[in-house]
Amino acid sequence: MTLTVNLGMRSYPVVIQRGILSRAADWFDLDRKVLVVTDSGVPRIYAETVAKQCAQSVIVTFPAGEESKNISTWLSLLDALTEHEFTRTDCVVAVGGGVVGDMSGFAAAAYLRGIDFYNVPTTLLAQIDSSVGGKVAVDYKGYKNIVGAFYQPKGVLIDPDVLDTLDSRQRSAGMAEAVKMAMIRDAELFELLERGEGDEKIEEVIYRSVQAKARVVEQDETEGGLRQILNFGHTLGHGIETASGYTLLHGECVALGMIPMTASGLRERLTTVLKAMDLPTKYDGDAEQIMSAMAHDKKRAGDLITVIRCPALGECILQPIEFEEFLEEIREVLR
Ligand SMILES: NC(=O)c1ccc[n+]([C@@H]2O[C@H](COP(=O)([O-])OP(=O)(O)OC[C@H]3O[C@@H](n4cnc5c(N)ncnc54)[C@H](O)[C@@H]3O)[C@@H](O)[C@H]2O)c1
Q1: By three-state DSSP, how is residue 97 classified?
Q2: Active-site annotation holder among 221, 234, 241, 252
Q3: pTM, to two decimals
Q4: Sheet harboring 304-309: ordered strands across?
Q5: Distance from C-alpha of 309 to C-alpha of 319, rounded to nearest angstrom
Q6: How far is the CA of 88 from the centre of ligand 1 (A)?
């Protein structure tokens, strides 16, 4: 399955195919010097499979985890590019989850004011969501994704076979992003997930999720308006993520964050789907603590906060509400 993210000169293909990792050179121009970036948790064989197909390659591996998504790791990527004398015609390939993708994309965006970047996402979350759309960033001073850019990849290769090595908790966290896309843009995808067919039809789940995201990004590449809907579940989700000290995964927090923002008549269907995926539907925490973790949220303006609500399957609306009102609503997911 192939789809195109249509952004004029910056358009690119997203290919979803089992085994595509070993045929990356059919889609990416690897006949040059290539920085292959990965992390210590990604089975080494994936980066090596890509590296083998390059005219010349340098593999850089940093320690796995969100803690690595910082300026010093980013500088280490720039160091590798400089030390190996990468030029404007060379490129970077990310082989990993969202952390590897975001970091490598941001290094490619900055080096020589931008060299080609390709993404080979290896977690379900990265395949469904983060590898497409061009948001690249690092965390700084405790703030997630606060330093970054919009920088589109030249191509994205999604090989569902690499998910075989992913643990089930990470897989479920990725599924949460598919539920998100389904809730706000694709009622049929929601029904597929509701029937419990997500695992057996994983290619379709990835394809439909990416397609839905691509159509939004095409209309609003730099999040001036419509793209904000992709933050459904994320406003509260980010607050819980920070308040939990990152003990919960991003997708798990998104799962929790969607619940109070979903119309009451639909909420039970949502929580049933989330539970079936082993995702949390209640958080053992304190509303005030979550709110203070959110106090610097980018989406907050004055005492108002823009929330994204799902009034009906496949639909969503943006709504500015008082911070206090939000505080009341989030109690829904607290134990
Ligand atoms: N750019 C965007 O639009 C966007 C969107 C959503 C999330 N993100 C970012 O993505 C990041 C989260 O990404 P993630 O959930 O992929 O986490 P991650 O990149 O930390 O990967 C999770 C873990 O899985 C391991 N792993 C990766 N692939 C594997 C495989 N095939 N088999 C076994 N282990 C594997 C990694 O080493 C890591 O330990 C966050 O930093 C978040 O901010 C970005």
Answers
A1: coil
A2: 234
A3: 0.96
A4: 300-301, 304-309, 317-322
A5: 7
A6: 28
Q: Is 309's C-beta closer than 6 angstroms to any atom of ligand 1? A: no
Residue 86, both tokens: 């990468």
Query: Residues 105, 148: contact at Cβ < 8 Å?
Result: no
3-state secondary structure of 25: helix
290-294: long-range pairs with CB below 8 Å, 24+: 290/236, 290/239, 290/240, 290/243, 290/330, 291/239, 291/323, 291/326, 291/327, 293/238, 293/239, 293/240, 293/242, 293/243, 294/235, 294/236, 294/238, 294/239, 294/242
Q: Whole-angstrom Cα distance, residue 258 to residue 326? A: 13
Domains with residue ranges and CATH for the chain: 2-165 (3.40.50.1970), 168-333 (1.20.1090.10)
Ligand 1 midpoint to CA 3 (Å): 22
Tens of pLDDT, residue by residue over 229-259, are: 999 999 899 899 988 988 999 999 999 999 9
